[in-house]
Design a protein that fits this description.
627 residues; Rossmann fold; binds 6-O-phosphono-alpha-D-glucopyranose; single chain; 3 domains; Glutamine Phosphoribosylpyrophosphate, subunit 1, domain 1; seven-stranded antiparallel beta sheet; 19 helices; alpha/beta
Length: 627
């Protein structure tokens, strides 16, 4: 995580860096800082806490140089404090770092033996010392970087400047993303193109162990060995999205309310509404994300179906909210496309030595497309010869670039750190994908296909109905204050929804909540139940309804307070609940898209009434680029 921005050009680096950091604050908000050339030296200013603190400090600061770097931090080594904030500065050498230096202990020890004056608890400062030692010897920042690259183990992307060469910035990476933006007589080096899209649309994506040297009007890329590389300049046709709260109190609330549109945008490329049939648009197996627009959609769909027809097994791998979406994908695919699906958290998948067989498809889900563990899982799957398909929101992100096939959430920018609309988009994409798999396998007759599409088409208006009940969710949230613990439960597709609901409460309201399969309640959680334990149970009218009611009765008999989310006018459910929230009736495969909304809104309202920062919850970040 952490967001980094470097600028070299005719404009004022302070403004460019600050505006870039603002757009990267989703990557971390523990501290921020800049180092900019001024009066022949380097002027560094840092502040603990959110970017706004740095902005205040920088308000009246002037810099005469045209080269600078900035950083917004998500703490790994060392507490959030000004002392540990980046940029680090050692003898005129300054750097910003995103990632983790795994061999930092041995580097620290060696530096201390050589008498280095280490002033922070970070692993990043150690790299600044190494570079300062090397520039001293080589008198050249690029050569120093080449030497230091071999000394580092871990995952990192780094920007370095040196006051003795105030006309160049050197960037290098191994792991977290780094992109060079090319402007007219200027260049930017950033963690994410969003940081500078208002200035340029031309980018060079750095691969691992590549070094970028940015000089006046010139950007050169080298291998770690110093070989000059010819890298493609990718021209993005994206506009810099104006992310605005549009009158909502928080981005998260706005994003929850954007879910009906998110569903439409996710399904629109893949569903032919006129003929009520599914036809995935430009999945482009084997093609780069940039070349997808140039594909012939009919041929691509044919190729996709040929690949799908051969698939015998699926892995779905992701982290956080994306993982819970993937778990719902398992229920959809196994039920509708009749393929065995294994779901796994990426950090487990990559180390657990899964058994790979032929004709296996690995679906990775990542809103950011940068989550380190998910990326490692994609790389492992590729190495083992699996066909990979990514579902990302950020086009051209590392996971999108590395996977063979590509599908997109199309959610638009999601600013709230706790994911909401991207979850709805992912479920929609997974639904389309499931139908496509079933179709390719000859398992979807025309009538069933039409039925599914009809169900999907109804979702946006059903979501509007659910959103219109918001005041009841706010009331329910208020009643949650009296509890000391929360058990979220569900069965079938509602089980991952229960886990997502519990996750939202933890992320936003800092309360302990567990998501559980309702059938497992007897095997432990029942012991926790008393009148101070709230049971939030998702109980749609589906085949498992009666079983869920029995679980609720068992919890009630032990004094648990029941908040149920079910189908409107279900008197049976109402009669066993202390609070009952009724949602529109929907097909079982659609219910997750509706039942997640009250859970998102309850967590939002509760956190908000406790005066927590719902858009940037403590200790979290939106893009997790470290293991
Ligand atoms: C972080 C975010 C979550 C997100 C998870 C996976 O933990 O705070 O909201 O669900 O990462 O992110 P991804 O970008 O891979 O979907």
């Amino acid at each position: 995580m952490c967001g980094i921005v470097g600028y070299f050009g005719p404009l004022n680096p302070k403004d460019i860096i600050l505006s870039g950091l603002k757009r990267l604050e989703y990557r971390g908000y523990d501290s921020a800082g800049v180092a900019i050339i001024h009066q022949g030296g380097l002027k560094r200013i840092r502040a603990e806490g959110k970017l706004v603190n740095l902005e205040t400090k920088l308000k009246n600061e002037k810099f005469d140089g045209r080269l600078g770097i900035g950083h917004t931090r998500w703490a790994t080594h060392g507490v959030p404090s000004e002392r540990n904030a980046h940029p680090h500065l050692v003898k005129g050498l300054s750097l910003v770092h995103n990632g983790i230096i795994e061999n930092y202990l041995e580097i620290r020890e060696a530096l201390q033996k050589r008498g280095a004056d280490i002033t922070s608890d970070t692993d990043s400062e150690l790299v600044a010392h190494l570079l300062a030692e090397e520039v001293e010897k080589t008198k050249d920042l690029f050569k120093a970087v080449q030497n230091v690259l071999g000394m580092l183990r871990g995952a990192f992307s780094i920007l370095a400047i040196w006051d003795q060469q105030p006309d160049q910035l050197v960037a290098f990476k191994d792991g977290p993303p780094l992109v060079v933006g090319i402007g007219k007589d200027e260049a930017f080096v950033v963690s994410d193109v969003q940081a500078v899209l208002q200035y340029t649309k031309k980018f060079i994506y750095l691969e691992d162990r590549e070094i970028a040297v940015v000089k006046v009007g010139k950007v050169q890329i080298f291998s770690a060995l110093g070989l000059r590389l010819e890298k493609p300049v990718v021209e993005l046709n994206w506009t810099s999205e104006q992310v605005d709260k549009l009158g909502f109190a928080h981005y998260m609330l706005k994003e929850i309310y954007e879910q009906p549109q998110a569903v439409v945008a996710a399904m629109e490329p893949h569903i032919d509404l006129k003929n009520q049939s599914v036809r995935l648009k430009n999945v482009g197996f084997g093609h780069s994300p940039q070349s997808l627009d140039g594909l012939n959609s009919i041929t691509d769909w044919q190729e996709t179906q040929n690949i799908f027809a051969k698939i015998e097994k699926i892995f779905i791998v992701a982290c956080g909210t994306s993982f819970y979406a993937g778990q719902i994908g398992k229920y959809l695919i196994e039920n509708i496309a009749q393929l065995p699906v294994e779901t796994d958290i990426a950090s487990e998948f990559r180390y657990r030595k899964p058994i790979f067989s032929k004709n296996t498809l690995m679906i990775s889900i990542s809103q950011s497309g940068e989550t380190a563990d998910t990326l490692a899982a994609v790389r492992l799957a590729k190495e083992k010869g699996l066909t990979t398909l990514s579902i990302c929101n950020v086009k051209n992100s590392t996971i999108d670039r590395e996977a063979s096939g590509h599908m997109y959430m199309n959610s638009g920018t999601e600013v709230g750190v706790a994911s909401t609309k991207a979850f709805a988009s992912t479920l929609t994409v997974l639904h389309c994908l499931t139908l496509a798999l079933a179709k390719a396998r000859g398992l979807l007759n025309i009538e069933t296909e039409k039925d599914h599409i009809l169900h999907l088409q109804k979702v946006p208006s059903q979501m509007e109905v659910v959103l219109a009940y918001d005041k009841y969710f706010a009331e329910a949230a208020n009643s949650l204050k009296e509890f000391r613990g929360f058990l979220y439960m569900g069965r079938g597709v509602s089980y991952p929804i229960a886990m997502e609901g519990a996750l939202k409460l933890k992320e936003l309201a800092y309360l302990h909540a567990e998501g559980y399969a309702a059938g497992e309640m007897k095997h432990g959680p029942l012991a926790l139940i008393d009148s101070r334990m709230a049971i939030v149970m998702v109980v749609p009218d589906d085949d498992l309804f009666e079983k869920s009611i029995s679980n609720l009765e068992e919890a009630r008999a032990r004094g648990g307070k029941i908040i149920s989310i079910g189908t409107v006018d279900n008197l049976r459910l109402k009669s066993v609940s202390d609070r009952y929230l009724g949602l529109p009736k929907a097909h079982w495969s659609i219910t997750p898209l509706l039942s997640v909304i009250p859970l998102q809104l309850m967590a939002y309202h509760l956190a908000n009434s406790l005066e927590y920062d719902v858009d940037q919850p403590r200790n979290l970040a939106k893009s997790v680029t470290v293991e």
